[in-house]
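assembly run, all chains below
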Amino acid sequence: MRLTQGTFSFLPDLTDAQIRGQIEYCLRNGWAVSIEYTDDPHPRNTYWEMFGQPMFDIRDAAGIMSELQACRRTFAQHYIKINAFDSSLGRESLRLSFIVGRPDKEPGFALERREAGGRHVQYTTRSYAVERPEGERY
Amino acid sequence: MMDSIANTPANGQARREDPPAQAGAAPQLDLDAAFRDSNIGEVLDKLERELIGLEPVKSRIRDIAALLLVDKLRHSLGLSAGAPSLHMSFTGNPGTGKTTVALRMAEILHRLGYVRKGHLVAVTRDDLVGQYIGHTAPKTREVLKRAMGGVLFIDEAYYLYRPENERDYGQEAIEILLQVMENQREDLVVIFAGYKDRMDTFFRSNPGMSSRVAHHIDFPDYTPGELHAIAGLMLEQMQYRLDSEADTALLEYIERRIRQPHFANARSVRNALDRARLRQASRLFDRRGGVLSKEDLVTIKAADIRASRVFTAAKSVEPGVSDNR
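ok done. output:
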């Protein structure tokens, strides 16, 4: 099951040229771009691992692209995303976040039903990947 | 078949209208138009106007500009020789304008489309080399990332290499630099700067570095006349002017200062002017109570310059200046 999250979730994966274009757009707006990866892509997991520091004071996408290539080499079978943080007053939050790397096989999520009081049913999702310990998933 | 049908009339027409052009059957290239479009003339003029002296530097910059312009035209025809290597080394005594030229270089390369953003990141050893094992590589990469799309200016680059300490982390920074200089040539231009003799030693002990730096540019010392002209430009920028006596005094000052130790070319001149401003201010302050005109505020008089230590030290030789200190 192909995981979709973030800004361009309705589009097919961006090519490197398109990613570069998006990064240029972020830099033009003065946003700090950072790279994050995880092997626990549950939609409610907002705490992905940082790959290096968020990159401030960058003028050109080339530096970030080379960092992204390094991340892909290191975590070839992880999910990788690019975030753009807007530090301007009143905003101070992510403006853009999209997936730029994914494992070859994505097992997807299970839907679990738990019966509560009466006939009430609670639903939750669980990633098949997290059945194995960290580092052995994917 | 399709081709011949499509081509015949066009070729025929070309032959009829303009027989000599037919031989190449290629689009006419307009170097003048490319030159105008790049606005490079404007930058080169500015360089000519604002950089006094430095003939070898200017002629090299013109060469590089021409090369890049021709490369652009070749590229438009689909001819490619790969991006030329433009890493440079600027050597010269202090105050000969290495940083200033590097700034200009970033602008020129940007106009010619060689670097994408045209900013200059100026660093020294401290910004590249870490303090413990594993600290250097991320630090150097960080700086390189910031410089991508522009020019990385490494001042006093010879400090990167410390032969007396074989475990010095500078070597690691050099290796990362080399790798990026070679593989990401289109992403950034690295300029090494420093004093001539020490840079020569640096390049001798790092042959890999030397061969990757295509342009070794030497900045000559300025003549007194050039320094005088530079002082004129500086004063213009600071919105001061010299009266005619002060002008002669300044030229005299420069001639004496050159012979003294720790002479740093244009930087010494700037410092001298700053001190003259200081003296001018206190001169005006001493006669407060009177009315000051704008003329008073912008004029530096001979006394402001002749009060310098450079003149008092040589008083015995030059009795004519004894009335000022």
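The first helix of chain B runs from residue 2 to 17.

The longest strand of chain B covers residues 189-194.

not gonna interpret more than that til we talk
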